[in-house]
Amino acid sequence: MRRPLGALVCLGSLAALSTPVAAAHAAAAPRDTCRVQVSAPTVTPAGKIQVTGTRAGCDDRALLRIRIKQANRGPDRTLASGARRGVNGTLTVKLRCGATPRTYYAVVLDYRGNAAKSQAVRLSCSSTGTPAPAPSATPTASPTATPTTTPTTPGNGTGTAEENEVVRLTNIERQKGGCGPLQHDPQLNKAAHDHSATQASRNQMTHQFPGGPDFVARIRAAGFTGGSAFAENVAAGYGTPASVVAGWMKSDGHRKNIMNCKYNLIGAGMVKSSGGTPYWTQVFVAK
């Protein structure tokens, strides 16, 4: 029988390393990181105007709404709208593309005080759906780009195949919520791998053994310097990278660490005990 994912999440910052785990859970995704973004309108091969919006870093449910608008001399006109309810996620809205060039842009809001506006672009389509050349309008101050469908995993040369697969799958989950990819840092990989090895040697899953260093001290011992925020996930008994990442994503505290967009570095470690039980560790750092 597969052992359950341990309900262990530990995080902190340089100013609050002694925060109890229960309190740290609530601090894993501060409200000031909650944001929405929306891409500039683009034309799909099927002849549709498409925009994609995301809500990320949030810890409350909200209604995410996107509107595709046409820029006019008078009041701008809403041509298409879509909405979804949830905590974090992605929403795509499409509109039929016509042959007459028009200027389009998109707005997104979550009715929780978060809103964003895309770059305005001038688009048109031929009868086959192929975009016709048209000059783009002046971009807004903060344009956003449409997420790619397959995120890369920077630092693939770091760690074992299983550890790099954990990083790759973690980055896929982050992309779904609008977060950037995590870089697999060699020193953080060492910190995570060494902690998994210690857990495996003692056949015990924990963030800190009695009398031993906490996870930030272990990160420092691995040679990592700097950093403004830290977090750690551990698990035992999951046989594959896919199953352990899926298990973490189903647990609120672990998921908040994975989906916290302020983190940009990761270390992933996996070591099996003498009895064959896999022990997994993820450490996250914002730098």
From TrEMBL:
The keyword 4Fe-4S does not apply. Residues 1-23 form the signal peptide. PANTHER family: SCP DOMAIN-CONTAINING PROTEIN (PTHR31157:SF1). Residues 125-162 are annotated as: Disordered. This is Uncharacterized protein YkwD. Keywords: Signal. Transmembrane segments: none annotated. Residues 126-161 have a biased composition (Low complexity). InterPro entries: CAP_dom, CAP_sf. Residues 168-284 form the SCP domain.
